[in-house]
Amino acid sequence: MSWQNNLRSVSPYIAGEQAELTDMIKLNTNENPYPPSLQVQKVIEDFKSDNLRLYPSTDAKVLRKALATYHHLNTDQVFIGNGSDEVLSLSFLTFFNSEKPLLMPDISYSFYPIYCGLYHIPYQKIPLADDFSLSVNSYFQENGGIVIANPNAPTGMAISLQEIEEILQNNQDSIVLIDEAYIDFGGESCLPLLEKFDNLVVVQTFFKSRSLAGIRLGVAFGSAEAIAHLYDMKNSFNSYPIDSLAQKIGEASLNDETYFQKSVSKIITTRENFKKELIKLGFQVTDSKTNFVFVHHPKVDATTLFKALYEAKIIVRHWNQARISDWLRITIGTDREMNTVIQFLKEYLKNKEKSY
Amino acid sequence: MSWQNNLRSVSPYIAGEQAELTDMIKLNTNENPYPPSLQVQKVIEDFKSDNLRLYPSTDAKVLRKALATYHHLNTDQVFIGNGSDEVLSLSFLTFFNSEKPLLMPDISYSFYPIYCGLYHIPYQKIPLADDFSLSVNSYFQENGGIVIANPNAPTGMAISLQEIEEILQNNQDSIVLIDEAYIDFGGESCLPLLEKFDNLVVVQTFFKSRSLAGIRLGVAFGSAEAIAHLYDMKNSFNSYPIDSLAQKIGEASLNDETYFQKSVSKIITTRENFKKELIKLGFQVTDSKTNFVFVHHPKVDATTLFKALYEAKIIVRHWNQARISDWLRITIGTDREMNTVIQFLKEYLKNKEKSY
């Protein structure tokens, strides 16, 4: 016997590398290339540190209300957590306490099975089609819950509002969790379905489209009943998850709609141009509605290309995982960064041709 | 069947009321009456919001190293979490996965049994003596872990380094978690025992003695092995729990030792003076080594006094709980605030005498 016998064994998630090379082009963790709204800078400059001696609002009250107004929901339909990973984690713990399996696509955010391992939630991976498309019919079976990222990661592909509605209609006895971390880049949010379904929970984040990865703000929207259960869970885990400054920063970002729309549409334009160039170079590219693309070249081994890019100080993401080991995920940076990537790929492919 | 059947039921913690009265004297949640170090103000003013588009360091690398240096430990002996509540929560989940009961004092931080409920950890409350003192012998029995707040909350009473060593020596097959949230106000930290015991985990916080309740920084210290397990757990729950600004603020606070010592010693002086005055008024007062006092008046019902104080806009804390329902916990504020409390109590007791 030893204290080690009482440890709970887990298989932790491995986050994308935070490489620290100088002059690198960092396209591996889907960070936004543009700074947050100037309102954020202002709110930080104006912040009086005296306030920090006091506890923050336990439910980020002002921000919660602002988010409700923004999305035309009631305040009690909004939950705020310490980044969307925490929101997902607490949601899994709250809603998926069943002996029936949680259903999820076989290719999706790799944190989902880790939460399942942590909380002993049985789960079943539902294979996507060969083209990574999702068939809603495969979710019409007994389950203890459903989690789908829409748009999906790392494929970037989205499903329609109607498809989500079909899943909800056929699963009214389970929570259907739709992870909309990337929704602002072109997908269609299913928030309007909250009017019809009390078993829908939608998770979003401030980090990608609002350039606030550094501040950790994640959100869940749902029926007042579901959200109340999520708060009960949060209050069993940590009373004050969101610090005072983060709350203010979230409010400031939410108030600057013009900047938000502008920076999101810049990224979408860059993505579409980047996609066209990739296709010209012979890449296969999924129809991404996110701030990244998922790409494959029939003539190039993905691991080899990943390494070549890395040596050129262009950091992208690759998974040594069945079905996607031939693919790379590339975050959309600035036009300039993406042009550098295209120039590199042109050279790389040209040299490769020569060596045949 | 409905989705409600799959909910995990919990009994959430209820935090001290964040009353929003004007001109109130808020002495109910142990917040520090003094602002944080001026270095904190400076680091906020100098912070460039552009940095927020990037993820924070997953383990608050720089702050982690600074804390290790500060406490003469190795970096791998330091864990940083989103407030000490999160650190405690993850520690319970990591270390107390046994069928034998976790031992804790019957009167202690009321979040402990809530974590146990959440994670299905069996626990056994060990009664403190009538004077709220802790007998180490009662912890020499089979267990799946031990958690003791030192100084204890809400009694404020501390145990000695030697007593903790005895507990460790007799429980080498369990993690002994010492919660030192209030240690800076006069208790003796057991960090030096880390040299001898790999089953000791010590939790501290930035919020009380460093006036940073608003920023959410909690810390665990332990053997490199124990801390590695805690990080595995954290990485199964949330990759990036500490935002970039909080990391910088923590560093700034840690660097200003002079201010830290000064504000802590001011609070200790105020506490000792306040205690003397209370004793003069006939109160029974525990030997608190914290930034609060725990008091009882033989002639006054605690609930009645709590309400009278509340009406005078002096907010303190009371628990309707066996053994302590006759007691009030009063946070140490400024000298001026504590004088106001004493003046109120003098009047109150005088009027009470009259009404006999």
Verbal overview:
Two copies of one chain form a homodimer. Chain A has helices spanning 38-46, 61-70, 84-95, 112-119, 161-169, 224-237, 244-255, 257-280, 302-311, 335-354; strands at 25-26, 78-81, 102-105, 123-126, 145-149, 176-179, 200-205, 218-222, 284-285, 292-296, 314-315, 328-331. Chain A is an alpha/beta fold. Chain A folds into two domains: 16-33 and 258-354, Alpha-Beta Complex (Aspartate Aminotransferase, domain 1), CATH 3.90.1150.10; 38-255, Aspartate Aminotransferase, domain 2 (3-Layer(aba) Sandwich), CATH 3.40.640. In chain A, the strands form three sheets. The first copy, chain A, has a seven-stranded mixed β-sheet with strand order 2-8-7-6-5-3-4, sandwiched between helices. In chain A, strand 5, helix 5 and strand 6 form a beta-alpha-beta unit. In chain A, helix 8 runs parallel beside helix 10. The termini of chain A are far apart. The relative contact order of chain A is 0.16. The mean pLDDT of chain A is 95. At the A-B interface, helix 1, helix 3, helix 4, helix 6 and helix 7 of A face helix 1, helix 3, helix 4, helix 6 and helix 7 of B.
